[in-house]
Amino acid sequence: MKKDRILVTGGTGYIGSHTVVELQQAGYSVVIIDNLSNSNRDVLDGIERITGIRPDFVEADCTDMDALKRLFADYPGIKGIINFAASKAVGESVQKPILYYRNNLNTLMNLLELMPDNGVKGIVFSSSCTVYGEPDVNPVTEQSPIKNATSPYGNTKQISEEIITDVIASGAPIKSVILRYFNPVGAHPTAEIGELPNGVPQNLIPYLTQTAMGIRKELSVFGNDYNTPDGSCIRDYINVVDLAKAHVLAVERMLEDKSDDKIEIFNLGTGRGTSVLELINAFETATGVKVPHKIVGRREGDIEKVWANPDKANNVLGWVADSTLEDTMRSAWAWQCRLRERGIM
Ligand code: UFG
């Protein structure tokens, strides 16, 4: 049975593309809007190879209100939106705050403004565990305090959550599910899609897999003097396909009115904290490939430790992140190998 039409902004990006696959496999029809600022058109081929369906694609910027209006006219009947379109590099946001506020906030406000007139019932918003800052207590629940943002990027996530809350409180006839992601990693098990950062990766896993491939000489471990068992920072690394599946459940929940609440917030993590050194070890064990690495000084602004209490998503959304870390590491490596086969990396 053909289900509703869903607009996925940023749908050729890392998490977006994995979510498009899951949506299509669940029977939804998908329209992607993406400006290709941090992705490329070939991702559509990967999605089609996995699902047998090529999603509709509009190359445009969500800050462009006219382009969005045209999209809603050209693709009638969109019932839900998943908003991934955003700039996401923490360091860059400190250098270019206006770019971050403009991209991330204007995109969201444009979508919220157009939803009622176009009959769109709900929006799923990509938020981040960055809203919890350095938590006083781990694991964090959705009730854990929101801390002052430490970067413009983090601030856009906090402000976005407030914008959605205020718009719904004003009586707008829409619903929202806000998803606070922990650290998404890995790739689709087919190795047809995955993470493809521009330039030198800032995040741990792409840097690690590029080092394992010999593209980078050595992985720098940022600090081993933290107050953690092995001294390196702890995160909750969540498999990107598990994460993508939560979006399908969130869309269903909104569109099928499974909750009376107009706005709901869920942590999406595994509930398991893993240190940088443990992650390197898990990668080496899972793949048999060594990762040359050295300990260097701390990275400014890093959180010491944060991991999720995912009980609410488990119980209310009926979702569990059940991939093992080893399988996830193998998927990240298979994707890196695929990029090499294709001469991309
Ligand atoms: N790390 C290294 N070496 C590297 C890169 C990272 O040791 O070359 C360490 C970091 O110090 C950190 C861990 O690996 O301890 C994870 O770092 P990432 O950069 O991969 O991820 P972050 O947790 O810093 O940031 C991520 C997302 C942000 C999001 C944030 C929420 O990139 O978008 O999680 O906490 F806001």
Produce a short descriptive summary.
By secondary structure, this protein is of the alpha/beta class. The protein has helices at 14-25, 42-51, 65-74, 90-95, 97-114, 152-169, 204-212, 240-255, 276-287, 311-317, 325-341, and strands spanning 5-9, 29-34, 56-59, 78-83, 122-128, 175-181, 183-185, 219-222, 234-235, 237-239, 263-268, 274-275, 293-296. The longest helix has 18 residues, at 97-114.
Give your account of this protein's structure.
The strands form 4 sheets. The chain has a 7-stranded parallel sheet, with helices on both faces. Strands 7-10 form a two-stranded parallel sheet. The protein has a domain at 5-186 and 239-268: NAD(P)-binding Rossmann-like Domain (Rossmann fold), CATH 3.40.50.720. The model has no long low-confidence stretch (mean pLDDT 97). It contains 11 helices and 13 strands. Helix 1 links the parallel strand 1 and strand 2. With 345 residues, the chain is of the alpha/beta class. Helices cover 39% and strands 17% of the residues. The protein is globular, with a radius of gyration of 19 Å. Helix 1 (14-25) runs parallel beside helix 2, helix 5 (97-114) packs parallel to helix 6 (152-169) and helix 9 (276-287) crosses helix 11. The termini are far apart. Residues 88, 90, 128-130, 154, 183, 202-204, 207, 219-222, 233, 235, 276, 299, 302-303 line the site of uridine-5'-diphosphate-4-deoxy-4-fluoro-alpha-D-galactose. Uridine-5'-diphosphate-4-deoxy-4-fluoro-alpha-D-galactose binds at residues 88, 90, 128-130, 154, 183, 202-204, 207, 219-222, 233, 235, 276, 299, 302-303.
